[in-house]
Structures are given as structure tokens and as C-alpha cells.
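User: New here, any thoughts?
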Amino acid sequence: MKTDIEISREAKLKHIQEIANVLHISAEHIIPYGNTKAKISLNVLKEANIKKNNLILITALSPTKAGVGKTVTTVSASLGLNKIGRTCIAALREPSLGPVFGMKGGAAGGGYAQVLPMEDINLHFTGDFHAITTANNTIAALLDNYQYNHINSDKALKQITWKRVLDVNDRSLRFVTTGLGGRTNGQPQETGFDITPASEIMAALCLSENFDDLQQRIERIILGYKLDNTPFTVKDLGVGGAITILLKDAIMPNLVQTTENTPAIIHGGPFANIAHGCNSVIATKMALSTAEYVVTEAGFGSDLGAEKFLDIKCRVAGLQPKATVLVATTQALKMHAGLEGDDTKKPNMDGIKNGIPNLQRHIENLQGFGQSIIVSLNKFHFDVQDEIDYLRSWCESKGAAFAVNEAFAKGGEGAIELANKIVDTVERNPSKPIQFTYELNDSIERKIEQIATKIYRAEKVEFSSKCKTVLSRIKKYNLGNLPVCIAKTQYSFTDNADIYGAPTGHILHVQDLVINTGAGFIVAVCGDIMRMPGLPKEPAANGMTFNNGIIEGLS
């Protein structure tokens, strides 16, 4: 089979206005970036249409290091639904350059289920990530300037908590010291970098409803603490308007197309293991206002992305998925059974059966939210029929529909079964109103414990001594009604990436709490998760070249 980039290069793309026409978006509301991608004006949002159309969530079981194909499945479901005559948009996050040049090599789907132009989407795109990086770091520069000019005065800050960001995996920047070289170079302080998808600016943009809401969220961001221990915010710094101006284009969703010229909206890109893992509220609502079906993914397994999609995004934005697609692969199941490497690609019914507890845990969790579920098996060439038949029978016995997805190799034709199962579920057995994991009036400790015990099946939660100071601040400044966003490994229900399957009775170790008043949630950092990832031993960048104007190596 051809490589992803070969398939994308051979696709005949339509002018972006033709794609907009499918959604009845006129030229006055489109801001083209070349011929094949565009920004969409916020004026396109039609609130009246949002609730009557169908939102479909794509999530997954606990993934392998290569993933399980959520983006492929999201694009596949969109292709399949359009193929059977339903107007459908794929609503996706934007790829981060860190994973593109690190482990993944690309994040625009794969095979014949891609969003295009793939090279542009993976590389800089329309500049949204750069705008967020610039906004974040402009705050840092203005904050350091404020501290420099108020040193030794009663306006100086006792503590600065704001970090800089960069959209590159760079472990060397996790902990740095700035302001060295004498007083004219600033005040020395220990700080560090996060990756851009972990920036609170990213989360604030993705959860805002409009430009005014974005500015209010930015102004609420806590940057540090004054000498009297009260919070110091962007509003106190007096730069909320300036920072929001930097995001005037980034707030508008991006319109592109799939390998079969169906519409896709791509916007925002918080990671689900260190942030809330969903595309923007604006993009999701815009898609719902213009298409009968919208399929959107939440990052990593359902214990991370789907939990945050439902407990944070849907709660904040008033969204209600009509069904949830849970992506699985035989490889991932066998990995959860303890098999490794090429052994996960070999027929092994015991491996399937022994790995199923992980899938079962995800099904039970989603059903606990009130979701109606379709398990979608991403089929690979090495999959055997008896294992597929076993999975189909097992899933149906658990009250979950089952479909085989072959769109990677066959395009929309390979996703017709999945599309029909989605429509059948929406029309016959739609999801119930969301049963949230916790109540907003629960304490922060209680919210984390609810997620840990209900979703991860942990026995208890242990908070580090570092958390005590933050918890006291949360209580003192009446921030306890915010939702929580767990930052932990994506590979396990525990905070240990090496524990596979469906463990129970473990301890969730909360190492730190981060107050994100702009985003509107409290981040609980668990285990040894890093908000600035490192590169693998063999980065994907090593295989990328640019020959005679042709990019090679993206996937």
C-alpha cells in the first residue's frame, strides 16, 4: 500500500470555497489561506441548529505507543456517513510539532482516511500554535518586566508561577534559570517551559465561546502571588486586551477537506494527558450548526480524553453526544495481555481474551456516563476472522454495537458498516443525558477521588506535601467549584505507564496542583507525567527530507 504522504499527494483537492459551499458558508465568511485551507468567521455560528444535529464522540481503549487510530477513525466515520448520504463534518484538533517531529511523524489520519493538505496541517498550518506560543510568552516577558521595574517595592511579586512554552519536545527546558548576567538582564529566578498544547492560553481558547469570553478568560489567568499572598492576574498586569489581540485570527476555526473532499474543521490542540484533550468549543458548535452529523475525537483513552470531554467540555459548553465510538485494535488488546512487539501482530485468541478487561473497563466507564457505544475495530492486514468474530460477539453481549473499520485501506467504502451503526444507534438508542463523574460543588480532593475510584478503579488518592499549599489557596480564594483536569500517563489506568490491562486497588499519586482560572479548571499532575515531553531515541525527524520541493517522511 502507498504511504500516507503518497496518498495525500495524489488526492485531487477542491478549492476551499467549494468545500465551504457544501456547508452553505458564503465567501464573505471565509478567509482563505491559499486554495485548500481557510479560516471561518465566527459569524457562521447558528445556535439554533446546534442541539438538533448529532454529535458523535470518538475515543479509545488505553493505547499502544503507536496509538490505536482515533484520528483515522474520526475521519473514517465522517467519510462513511457522507458515503451513506448524511452530511457530516470531522471536527479535529491541530497537530503539535513536538509529536510530529518526535514519536508520531504526523497526526492528520492515515491511508485513505486523512485530512488534507496533510503537509500543511502537520507543519505550521495557519499559525494558530505560533499565535498561542507568542501570546503565552508575551505574558511572560511583560510579567518579568513588571517584576524588574517593581523590585524592592510593595508591588513586587512574592512568587511567579507563569511559565514559557514552546511547541517542541525539549526535555532540557523543563527546568531553567532566567535573568542571569547582572541586574540589567532581569531578576534571576527558577522557572521552566511547558509544551504549547499545555499552555493555559491553549485551554482558554479551546473552551471560550467567543472573543469577549476569551479575553475574560485570559484576564482571569493567575500569574503569581503578591507579597500579601493574593493572586496576581493578567488583568492586574493590565495586558488582557493586548494578549487577546494576538489571538484574533487563532480563535477562528480552520476549514480543510478529507481524502474524499468532504469537509473537516480543525482547531485547537490541547493534549489529553497533560491538558483537556479536545478541539475548541467554537469549532464543535460551528460544525454542529452546519452539518447533520459531527464526529469529534478526544485524546488518548477514554479515561483521559473522553472523561475530560464529558466532565469539562460538555459541562461548560452544554454539549451532549448522541453516541460514542470506542476505538480498539487487536494489537492493543494483546499488549494489555502482556504480549510485546511483533507478537501482538500474530493470531492469538488467548491474547485477545486476556486483553479484553481493558476494553471492558472503558465500556463500563462510558456506559456509566450514560453513553451508547459502538466499538470500532481498526482492521489491519494481520487480523484474523475468528478473533474479529469473537470480539463482535463479546461486545454485543456487553450492550455495545460493533463495527469493523477498513477505511485506512478502502476509504469511505471501508467505513460504511461503522457509519450505519452510528446512525442506527443515534436513531434507536441515543445516549442518555450525561451522568457526570462528580458534582461541581464537591471539594477538589473529592473530585479527584471520584475520578480515581470511579474511572481508574484506584483504591485511594495520595496528595504530595506540595499540593497542600495549593489546596489552601483554592479554598481561600473560593476556587473549589472548578472542574478538575487529570494529567497522567495515557498508557495505563494508573499513574505508572508500565501497568497495562485493567488494574484495581492502586494508589493515584498527585504530585502537584495547578490553578488554571483562565481555562476554568484545576490541573492535578499525577505520577511522573511531564508537561514538556522529551524526544524518543530515534525521532521521526530523522526520517524527514525535502527533495526537489517534495516533503518526504511525514505520516
Observations:
- DSSP finds 20 helices and 25 strands in the chain.
- Residues 128-149 form the longest helix (22 residues).
- The chain has a mean pLDDT of 96.
- The two ends are 13 Å apart (CA to CA).
